[in-house]
């Protein structure tokens, strides 16, 4: 990971909050020959000094088999990102760049039983579907339907051992440059530029 002191946060809670706000991760493992990866939503559980990720994958896949063979994995969290044009700098004859926020969390994965997987599916469904009002609430699904689909799913728990991050928001540039970047991003038509402009307002 490309890390520089000025692209880092000194506040661990800010890093965890970023992870919780961006729970659709890229989960990377190793099958003995090549890296394997999949994209999955996770719940981030913060228990004192311990941080773990809870989720599920399809069972008969290359990545599930790899996680079973080699439990060392990495979860990549990604937030807003955007091209930053040097044309808006006070001294524009310089290299343009790309601003972004990302976290890499390394840990040990443990594959779970069907009963544990059942609870994981319930928890993540209840997180995104209101148990009281949604017609797709977990308790409104037929149990036979749930059990049938559970046969194709394996839950997992990842105990995080190490976290690194980059919050690259042009901190190495002057406040005037950062203000110009925000103004430029706000004028663009794509949603990513607007998201980055909102993120950068916290660094101006």
What is the H level of CATH, i.e. the homologous superfamily?
Electron Transport, Fmn-binding Protein, Chain A
H/E element sequence: HEEEEHEEHHEHH
How far do the termini sit from each other?
25 Å
What is the 3D form?
elongated
What is the count of helical runs?
6
> Which sequence of strands runs across the widest sheet?
2-1-5-6-7-4-3
CATH class: Mainly Beta
Q: What's the topology here?
A:
Elements: H1 12-21, E1 24-30, E2 35-41, E3 43-47, E4 50-58, H2 62-69, E5 72-84, E6 97-111, H3 114-128, H4 143-150, E7 153-168, H5 175-187, H6 191-200
Antiparallel strand pairs: 1-2, 1-5, 3-4, 4-7, 5-6, 6-7
Summed up:
The chain is an alpha+beta fold and about 200 residues long. The protein is built from six helices and seven strands; from the N terminus they run H-E-E-E-E-H-E-E-H-H-E-H-H. Strands 2-1-5-6-7-4-3 form a seven-stranded antiparallel sheet.
Q: Care to describe what's here?
A:
There is one protein chain. The chain has helices at 12-21, 62-69, 114-128, 143-150, 175-187, 191-200; strands spanning 24-30, 35-41, 43-47, 50-58, 72-84, 97-111, 153-168. With 204 residues, the protein is of the alpha+beta class. The longest helix has 15 residues, at 114-128. The mean pLDDT is 95. The chain has one domain (5-199): Electron Transport, Fmn-binding Protein, Chain A (Pnp Oxidase, Chain A). The chain has a seven-stranded antiparallel beta sheet. Strand 1 (24-30) and strand 2 (35-41) form a beta hairpin. 31% of the residues lie in helices and 35% in strands. Helix 5 (175-187) runs antiparallel to helix 6. The chain is built from six helices and seven strands, in the order H-E-E-E-E-H-E-E-H-H-E-H-H.
């Amino acid at each position: 990971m490309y890390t520089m002191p000025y692209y880092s946060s000194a506040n661990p809670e800010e890093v965890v909050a970023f992870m919780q706000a961006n729970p659709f991760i890229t989960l990377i493992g190793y099958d003995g020959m090549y890296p394997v990866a999949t994209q999955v939503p996770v719940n981030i559980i913060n228990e004192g000094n311990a941080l773990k990720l809870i989720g599920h994958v399809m069972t008969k896949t290359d990545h599930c088999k790899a996680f079973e063979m080699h439990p060392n994995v990495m979860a990549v969290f990604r937030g807003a990102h955007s091209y930053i044009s040097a044309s808006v700098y006070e001294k524009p004859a310089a290299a343009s760049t790309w601003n972004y926020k990302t976290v890499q969390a390394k840990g040990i994965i443990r594959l779970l039983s069907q009963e544990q997987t059942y609870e994981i599916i319930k928890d993540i469904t209840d997180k995104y579907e209101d148990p009281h009002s949604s017609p797709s609430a977990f308790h409104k699904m037929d149990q036979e339907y749930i059990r049938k689909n559970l046969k194709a799913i394996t839950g997992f728990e990842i105990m995080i051992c190490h976290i690194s991050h980059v919050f690259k928001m042009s901190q190495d540039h002057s406040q005037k440059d950062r203000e110009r970047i925000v103004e430029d991003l706000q004028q663009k038509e794509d949603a990513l530029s607007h998201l980055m402009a909102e993120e950068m307002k916290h660094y101006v």
